[in-house]
Amino acid sequence: MVISDGAKHRLALVIELTKTVFHYSFIPTVLYLGFRKGADPGMPEITLSK
């Protein structure tokens, strides 16, 4: 299977964009999911000030 130079370039751009999006969205996503779930029973409530 032969891939043209234009397709290789577009694929490289898509991969770089995917890496960048993952890099900058991973921690905020984990924090969002943690705040959405809330604290376990018996633990103090999760707030931004703590």
TrEMBL record:
<dbReference type="GO" id="GO:1903955">
    <property type="term" value="P:positive regulation of protein targeting to mitochondrion"/>
</dbReference>
<keyword id="KW-0653">Protein transport</keyword>
<protein>
    <recommendedName>
        <fullName>Mitochondrial import receptor subunit TOM7 homolog</fullName>
    </recommendedName>
</protein>
<dbReference type="InterPro" id="IPR012621">
    <property type="entry name" value="Tom7"/>
</dbReference>
<dbReference type="GO" id="GO:0030150">
    <property type="term" value="P:protein import into mitochondrial matrix"/>
</dbReference>
<keyword id="KW-1133">Transmembrane helix</keyword>
<dbReference type="Pfam" id="PF08038">
    <property type="entry name" value="Tom7"/>
</dbReference>
<keyword id="KW-0496">Mitochondrion</keyword>
<keyword id="KW-1000">Mitochondrion outer membrane</keyword>
<keyword id="KW-0813">Transport</keyword>
<keyword id="KW-0812">Transmembrane</keyword>
<comment type="similarity">
    <text>Belongs to the Tom7 family.</text>
</comment>
<keyword id="KW-0472">Membrane</keyword>
<dbReference type="GO" id="GO:0005742">
    <property type="term" value="C:mitochondrial outer membrane translocase complex"/>
</dbReference>
